[in-house]
Amino acid sequence: MAYFKNIGNIAYEGKGSDNPLAFKHYNPQEIVLGKPMEEHLRFAVAYWHTFTASGADPFGVGTAVRGWDSANEMDQAKMRVEANFEFLSKIGIPYYCFHDRDIAPEGSSLAETNKNLDVIVDLLEEGMKASGAKLLWNTANMFTNPRFVHGAGTTSNADVYAYAGAQLKKSLEIGKRLGAENYVFWGGREGYETLLNTDMALELDNLARLFHMAIAYSKEIGFGAQFLIEPKPKEPTKHQYDFDAATTIAFLQKYDLKDYFKLNLEANHATLAGHTFEHEIRVAAINGMLGSLDANQGDLLLGWDTDEFPTDLFSTTLTMYEVLKAGGLGKGGVNFDAKVRRGSFEDEDLFLAHIAGMDTYAWGLKAAAKLIEENVIDGFVDNRYRSFKEGIGAEIVSGRATLASLEQYALQNNVIKNESGRLERIKLQLNEIIYSV
Ligand code: XUL
Ligand code: CO
């Protein structure tokens, strides 16, 4: 059955086009720095926002009008599968992503829930075979059901921990069956509200134990996906353990997990942590931990995760600059963890929103490539640090310097000369490049 009857395949029409249902910048086959755009970006649709969510917020019920609305949860789940593949093929996005609970409803027992999943996973497998669509990542939703009130891997209740382990096991099996290229762990309720009732050390040790079990089980079943942790500083818990890239990397190092994971970084999570997205990507990249991106943007006037479709060129340019400099996303991609606004409740808005996000990323990619080709940032940076290439600077970098040798140098070097960082000049150049591509 077709759900988006009035919408055809979205084509690239280029900059002059005034067709809102066409790409102005995303031209999948266009070569940028030696690689087609689609290979740089590896876009993915988020099942939960696009097919499962209704537009409900804490103050009101859903507003979305969807062709797959149904009172029967399993019927609805089956229709969503069809809508997913129709949407992917019309918009031209190669990948999708889901939580287990996005695709199938929970039953009255774990066994029944798993049966529901099996029915839907069969349909997804068929749809993937027929359409060529691929799974960028899957994950387990261990935060929505009330049983996870005190967490999953960091719960105070061992029975809940066991349930989480069972759910994770099933999710890894689904990932293997559908050929997921990555598997994501986002610690939705892995955090705490107050230390007054929390054993932080035990919670973190238990979380690491769950990750080790996931590694062991994946090896056992031959599931070769790249494991990703998605940091977020707060929401739903007041203090999430995977606060940001740096905190997550320290956790992985402490528990001998670093070799098994990379990071799935999300733009709005970065801003909630008080960082830019590009900061998070740089921290991951310099530690060899850049995995994948959840593309969206927040509203800087609001203090929560608004998951808006990315439309800020300045941000996507700097994001893609970091990605290009890091050598690309590898097995990862650019997943739109983004939702249409509650007021954008028509099916067409799903297309318009993804087009906006894809064009903004494609534009950012082209601008970032130009920044590299014209040596704009590297030129500045190389020149700024040139004192470390010779003399005392080279001694420091080579590790030969001691406090005594630095003192000897400083005592005879009576005039220290600093230079301007030229920030305003670089920012203007950046504006010019963004608007020239
Ligand atoms: C929540 C969030 C999640 C993860 C997957 O803020 O980003 O949807 O991406 O669980
Ligand atoms: Co996310």
TrEMBL record:
It comes from the Bacteria. Mg(2+) 2 binds at E266, H269, D305, D307. It catalyses: alpha-D-xylose = alpha-D-xylulofuranose. Mg(2+) 1 binds at E230, E266, D294, D337. HAMAP family: Xylose_isom_A. Belongs to the xylose isomerase family. Homotetramer. This is Xylose isomerase. It comes from Paenibacillus glycinis. The gene is xylA.
